[in-house]
Specification:
By secondary structure, the protein is an all-alpha fold. The protein contains three helices and no strands. Helix 2 runs antiparallel to helix 3. The longest helix has about 55 residues. It is rod-shaped, with a radius of gyration of 28 Å. The model has no long low-confidence stretch (mean pLDDT about 90).
Length: about 80
């Protein structure tokens, strides 16, 4: 299983090596579980970093929207007061 994967650019070299070790030691199922756990944690970290980066953008967007709503509510009141 590891030999054909070496020629594939889809899988990183670490996966090739771990599958080769699992095949030679007879614990391929455990190696595949370890690979899955590793990449699961990597995806979790990437999503967490993305959400951390997006929080300020979301807060700024909500501030602009709420500020626009408040200005649109009070602007006619102030214009009416200056017309009198």
């Amino acid at each position: 299983m590891a030999a054909p994967m070496v020629n594939s650019p889809v899988f990183p070299p670490m996966v090739h090596q771990m599958i080769a070790v699992g095949e030679s030691s007879g614990t391929l199922d455990m190696m595949l579980i370890k690979i899955a756990d590793y990449y699961d944690e990597e995806v979790e970290r990437a999503v967490e970093n993305l959400m951390t980066a997006l929080e300020p953008v979301i807060i700024l967007f909500l501030g602009v929207v709420i500020g626009g709503i408040i200005i649109s509510m009070y602007l006619p009141i102030f214009q009416m007061g200056s017309a009198i």
